[in-house]
């Protein structure tokens, strides 16, 4: 790690979204970054040189929040289309859809063990879902306005939520009751989260403030006024010693919580900054905003042995734990003005040969949806069901869904074998999956509708069959081979359906020119 005297450095830009970035999260292994945007897409960025970026298509409105599961085998997203989706972060785009909220969903958050998911919505509720059974569990109702964010505590016993009703509430996940309430008469919190030890929460205020509260004694510990615009997001460093903030004033601020002061002001975005997050190890952090860019920064300023601190903090997760030196913060509000010791960094002025990444983007279309609603939760998958290896916490898997199998399916996309290494070409696999989807749709059509569809289109498949075969023969292009396979299967299935019709139908078909 760099020495403590080094400043944060902007390493890379990522460009690919077509609208503002609303949320981002690092994968647990620190090799990938997921981003959500107003353009309705999720994107997955790989930090390896010359790696592709993947765009997940499926949400019908703005994607407001995204987060990796603790094991990295799932990617949760929330959207203004009122749904929550669990994606498999690979090339297939497989997902499971949750429908229970009656208004736009603003945030998603996994519990630390990956067993539960909390979602917050403009329907004034927080909902908790089981990841093991893929089903809705319960709702938390006490807010009187839109809920903007909900987060689990590190031990999973509590949930903190913030709302436009100008309150921050602490919920007990055991009895489903609100146990603490913090109110503000000026503005509301846009974002809230627990510190790594679980003893404090920090809020990002629409009134341009950042506040740190002790949830054990219900007191305000720190109050920062360092931004000139609303604060949209915060992120704790894994050590718990630093807090980074993102604001509509276009800047990022880094706060030293032990000393209670602002230490860095970071510029680089050309507009409001909506999201910021440290990586799981703390060596990197990323930010995104209205300029559609994702900025990846190297931390550099923290060389404290935070892993040792975290182990010690785990022993102090209970309300009756004795105070510790690291818990003693200044007790009075700390409005900060620009000071001599504050370092301002503008990478666009200081960095000349900055690496700008605009990688090739691969669109991943939604595939094989499983929908879960509040009234009809999905039951435990049957033995051998393919979804079990994808959507379950690896620590909870049955022998049929072994961790080894799950690990293979959740590897980085950059490590997946190329087409030449696969026993079956990827193009053929994709074609067969597409055909199965089409057959599934056809089996749901009424006989009358299917009859009409076939009589209208029966000439076209055979004509396309001949042209596709000739084109395949001349160019030997895989894409045409896929089209050829599609048409052959379609014609074969059409002929099969004809044999199922009555004699009158058969007579009609034979009277047509095939």
Automatic annotation (TrEMBL):
Query: Do you know which InterPro entries this protein is assigned to?
Result: WD40/YVTN_repeat-like_dom_sf (IPR015943), WD40_PAC1 (IPR020472), WD40_repeat_CS (IPR019775), WD40_repeat_dom_sf (IPR036322), WD40_rpt (IPR001680), WDR55/POC1 (IPR050505)
Repeat (WD) positions are 14-55, 56-87, 98-139, 140-181, 192-223, 224-265, 266-297
GO CC, any one term: ciliary basal body
Q: Coiled-coil stretches, from where to where? A: none
Where does the protein end up?
Answer: Cytoplasm, Cytoskeleton, Cilium basal body; Cytoplasm, Cytoskeleton, Microtubule organizing center, Centrosome, Centriole; Cytoplasm, Cytoskeleton, Spindle pole
Q: What is this protein called?
A: POC1 centriolar protein homolog B
According to its UniProt record, which protein family does this protein belong to?
Belongs to the WD repeat POC1 family.
Pfam families, from UniProt?
Answer: WD40
Q: Which UniProt keywords apply?
A: Cell projection, Cilium biogenesis/degradation, Coiled coil, Cytoplasm, Cytoskeleton, Phosphoprotein, Repeat, WD repeat
Q: Name one GO biological process term.
A: acrosome assembly
For this UniProt entry, which residues form the secretion signal?
none
Checking PANTHER family in the record gives:
POC1 CENTRIOLAR PROTEIN HOMOLOG B (PTHR44019:SF1), WD REPEAT-CONTAINING PROTEIN 55 (PTHR44019)
Cite the record's note on assembly: Interacts with POC1A. Interacts with FAM161A. Interacts with CEP44; the interaction is direct and recruits POC1B to centriolar microtubules. Forms a microtubule-associated complex with POC5, CETN2 and FAM161A. Interacts with CCDC15.
Functionally, this protein is described as follows:
Plays an important role in centriole assembly and/or stability and ciliogenesis. Involved in early steps of centriole duplication, as well as in the later steps of centriole length control. Acts in concert with POC1A to ensure centriole integrity and proper mitotic spindle formation. Required for primary cilia formation, ciliary length and also cell proliferation. Required for retinal integrity. Acts as a positive regulator of centriole elongation.
């Amino acid at each position: 790690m760099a020495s403590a005297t080094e400043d944060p450095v902007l390493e890379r830009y990522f460009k690919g979204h077509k609208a503002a970035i609303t949320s981002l999260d690092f994968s647990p292994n620190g090799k990938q970054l997921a981003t959500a945007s107003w353009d309705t897409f999720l994107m997955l960025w790989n930090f390896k040189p010359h790696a592709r970026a993947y765009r997940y298509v499926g949400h019908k409105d703005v994607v407001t929040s995204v987060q990796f599961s603790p094991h990295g085998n799932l990617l949760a997203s929330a959207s203004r289309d009122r749904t929550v989706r669990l994606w498999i972060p690979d090339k297939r785009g497989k997902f499971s859809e949750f429908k229970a909220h009656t208004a736009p969903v603003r945030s998603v958050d996994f519990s630390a063990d990956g067993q539960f998911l909390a979602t917050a919505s403009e329907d004034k509720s927080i909902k908790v879902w089981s990841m093991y059974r893929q089903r809705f569990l319960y709702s938390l109702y006490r807010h009187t306005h839109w809920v903007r964010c909900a987060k689990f505590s590190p031990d999973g016993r509590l949930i903190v939520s913030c709302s436009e009703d100008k309150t921050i509430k602490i919920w007990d996940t055991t009895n489903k009751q609100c146990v603490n309430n913090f109110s503000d008469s000026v503005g509301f919190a846009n974002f809230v989260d627990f510190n790594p030890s679980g003893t404090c929460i920090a809020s990002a205020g629409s009134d341009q403030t950042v506040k740190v509260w002790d949830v054990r004694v219900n007191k305000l510990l720190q109050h920062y006024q360092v931004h000139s615009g609303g604060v949209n997001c915060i992120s704790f460093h894994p050590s718990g010693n630093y807090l980074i903030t993102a604001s509509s004033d276009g800047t990022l601020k880094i706060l030293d919580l032990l000393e209670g002061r602002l230490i860095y002001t970071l510029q680089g975005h050309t507009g409001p900054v909506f999201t910021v997050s440290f990586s799981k190890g703390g060596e990197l952090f990323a930010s995104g905003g209205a300029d559609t860019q994702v900025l990846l920064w190297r931390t550099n300023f923290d060389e404290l042995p935070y892993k040792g601190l975290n182990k010690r903090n785990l022993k102090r997760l209970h309300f009756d734990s004795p105070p510790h030196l690291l818990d003693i913060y200044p007790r009075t509000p700390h409005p900060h003005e620009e000071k001599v010791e504050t370092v301002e960094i503008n990478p666009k002025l200081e960095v000349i040969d900055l690496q700008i990444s605009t990688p090739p983007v691969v669109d991943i279309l939604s595939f094989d949806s499983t929908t879960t609603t509040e009234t009809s939760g999905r039951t435990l998958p049957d033995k051998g069901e393919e979804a079990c290896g994808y959507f379950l916490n690896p620590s909870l898997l049955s022998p049929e869904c072994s961790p080894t199998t799950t690990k293979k399916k959740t590897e980085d996309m950059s490590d997946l074998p190329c087409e030449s290494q696969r026993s079956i070409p990827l193009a053929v696999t994709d074609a067969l999956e597409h055909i199965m989807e089409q057959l599934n749709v056809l089996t749901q059509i009424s006989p009358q509708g299917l009859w009409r569809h076939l009589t209208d289109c029966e000439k076209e498949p055979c004509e396309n069959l001949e042209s596709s075969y000739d084109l395949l023969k001349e160019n030997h292009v895989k894409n045409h081979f896929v089209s050829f396979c599609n048409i052959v299967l379609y014609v074969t299935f059409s002929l099969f359906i004809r044999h199922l019709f009555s004699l009158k139908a058969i007579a009609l078909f034979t009277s047509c020119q095939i």
